[in-house]
Automatic annotation (TrEMBL):
Protein purpose: Ferredoxins are iron-sulfur proteins that transfer electrons in a wide variety of metabolic reactions.
Chain segments annotated as transmembrane: none
Organism for this UniProt entry: Bacteroides sedimenti
PROSITE patterns with a match to the protein in the record: 4FE4S_FER_1 (PS00198), 4FE4S_FER_2 (PS51379)
Protein name: Ferredoxin
Domain 4Fe-4S ferredoxin-type: residue ranges: 4-34
Keywords of this entry: Electron transport, Iron, Iron-sulfur, Metal-binding, Transport
Superkingdom: Bacteria
InterPro entries the UniProt entry points to: 3Fe4S_ferredoxin, 4Fe4S_Fe-S-bd, 4Fe4S_Fe_S_CS
Amino acid sequence: MAIKKVWLDESENECISCGACEVACPEVFEVPDKMIVKSGVDFSQFESEILDAVDSCPSEVIKYEMTDDE
């Protein structure tokens, strides 16, 4: 299985722009005002870093989806 999608989900909490995700994985995340996921990134190349960002997010607003075909 591989990560195929990453997004900001503020349905329960809001991004506090702490920058922890950008520190964990600057290739995928950027925090100008609020966290954004960079476009055109092959998430499979940064899976452990993405999971570190998810774990380090104090607001728990980073979500991801895995593929079923691997």
